[in-house]
Amino acid sequence: MRSLNAGILGVAILVAAAPAGAQEVLFSGGEVRASPLLPESKGIKVGEGRLHPFLELDAHAIHNPGRFSAGLYDQAPALDGRRNDFYFVGRPGVDYKLPSPHLDLSATAYLERQQYLDNDEFSSWQGGLGGNLHFNKDGPLQLRASERLTRIAAPGNQTFTQRFDHWTNSTGVGVDVEPGGGALKLSADMSFYFDWYDNDSQVPPEFLNNERYTPTLRAAWSFLPKTQVFVEATTTFTNFRETQGAFANGDSFIYSAFAGLNGVITPKISALLKVGYTGITSDTVPSLDPSKNTIGTQAEVTWSATATTKLRVGGMRTLEPIPIFVYATMWKAYTRFDQAIASRLNLSLGFEYYNFSYQRGAAATGGATDDGSDRREDNSIQASLAIAYYVTEFITVSVVDRLDYRNTNYVYNQAIAEQVFSAQNAGFLTNDVFLRFGVRY
C-alpha cells in the first residue's frame, strides 16, 4: 500500500516528532557502552586497549506494539489479537576501549535480532557501529571525531501499521583550543546526520528521508577547576528529499545563540544552565509562516546525595524540524534517579515529558483535530523502571518496564493488516516489560 492519500500520509507525520533515545546502544562522550545495565569488566587485552565481547538476551511482553489507538482495536475486533504480543531479542557485539591522554579511543559494534510471535511484520534485523576518538585530550590543541551508523527497525513513538526500517548515520568532528593551557577554551564542531528509509513502508521514503548539518562555535572560561561559563552559537540546516506537491516538506535553517554555566556548584551538586535566542527560517509552504523566533533555554541539575544515590532533573525549550509539519516548538522535562543497593543491585527510574506545538495546520496535512482547532498539539510521556542484579563481574540479570504514552488532538486515517480505518486519534499507550540476561567479558 503505497498511495499517498490523507490516511497514509498521517503515518509519516509523527516520525521526527518523537523523542529520541529509544536505542539500546548508548554512545556518550568518550565512552561507548552496549547497555547501561552491563557491568565493567576486564576484557581481552588488544594492544594498549581492551576488547569486551558481550551478549544480551531479552524476553519481552508488550502491550500495543504497533502504537495504535484504542479506538482502532474497538473498531476492528478481529485485530484484537495484535493488541498484546511477545517478542525475543538476541544482541551479540563487542566494544573496545583505549583510554590515553594522547589518543582516547572507544568503539562498539553489535547485531540484533527481534522476533515477534504474532506481529511477525515487526520482526527485524538491527545493528550498529560507532566510535569516538579524542586526540591529545590533555594538550592545548585537541581533535575529536565520532561516527555512529545504525540500522533501526522500531516504532519510535509513532502510530502506524508496521515499523519503519531505516538507516541513520551521524558523523562529528571538532577541535578544542586552550591558549596557553589556561582557563579559556575555544571549540568548533561540525556534525552531519543522515536518515534514510526503506521503500517498503506505507509512506514513500522521500517524504521521510532527511539530512542535517550542524556547525557550532563555543567559548568557555573556567573560573573554578570544574566550573565554567560559556557562550555558544549553533545552526542546523535540515534538508528533506521531497519538497514538491501538496504535502511538500520544507527545508529549514535553525539558528541559536546561548550563554550559560556548566559544572560543579557544590561537592554534591552540578548544573547546566543556559538561555538564549533561537529562530527558524523555512522554505515557503502554502499557508505557512516561513519563520519564527523564540526563547531557547535548558536547565539541568544533578544531585549526588551519596556515593550510591544520584538524582537528575532538567528541562528545555527549542525548535525542532518536522516532516510535513515543517517544524514544531518543543518543551521537554526529564528526571532520572539511580540508586545502588549493597554492592550488586542497581535501581534506575526515568521520566520524560514532551510537548509539541506544530507549525503547519492539521487540515493542510490531510488530517484534522478533534477539538475544532487547526493547531496540532501533542503531549508525550516516557517512563522506565530498571532493576539490575550483578550476578558476577561478567553477568547481569535485569528487569525493565518501559511505558510510552501520547495524547494528541490530531486525527487521521490509520491502516492495519491492509485495512484503512478512518478518523482515528493519533494517541496511544504502549507498555514493554522484559527480562534481560547480559554477559560482558
Compute the number of strand runs. Answer: 24
Look at the structure and give the mean pLDDT: 82
- Choose one word for the global shape: globular
Helix/strand-derived category reads mainly beta
Quaternary: single chain
**Alpha-carbon distance between the two ends:** 46 Å
Enumerate how many helices there are, as a single number: 2
Radius of gyration: 23 Å
Major sheet: size, sense and barrel closure?
18 strands, antiparallel, barrel
Residue stretches low in confidence (pLDDT < 50, at least 5 long) are 1-34, 156-161
Q: Give the topology string: H per helix, E per strand.
A: HEEEEHEEEEEEEEEEEEEEEEEEEE
Fraction of residues in β-strands: over 45%
What percent of the residues sit in helical stretches (DSSP H or I)? under 10%
Description:
- The model is unreliable at 1-34 and 156-161 (pLDDT under 50).
- The longest helix has 7 residues, at 6-12.
- With 441 residues, this protein is an all-beta fold.
- It has an 18-stranded antiparallel beta barrel. A 3-stranded antiparallel beta sheet has the order 19-22-23. A two-stranded antiparallel sheet has the order 1-2.
- The radius of gyration is 23 Å and the shape is globular.
- Strand 22 (410-416) and strand 23 form a beta hairpin.
- It contains 2 helices and 24 strands.
- The protein has helices spanning 6-12, 70-75; strands at residues 26-28, 31-33, 44-46, 49-63, 84-98, 103-116, 124-135, 141-154, 164-177, 184-197, 210-224, 227-240, 252-266, 269-282, 291-306, 309-322, 326-341, 345-358, 368-369, 377-390, 395-408, 410-416, 419-425, 428-440.
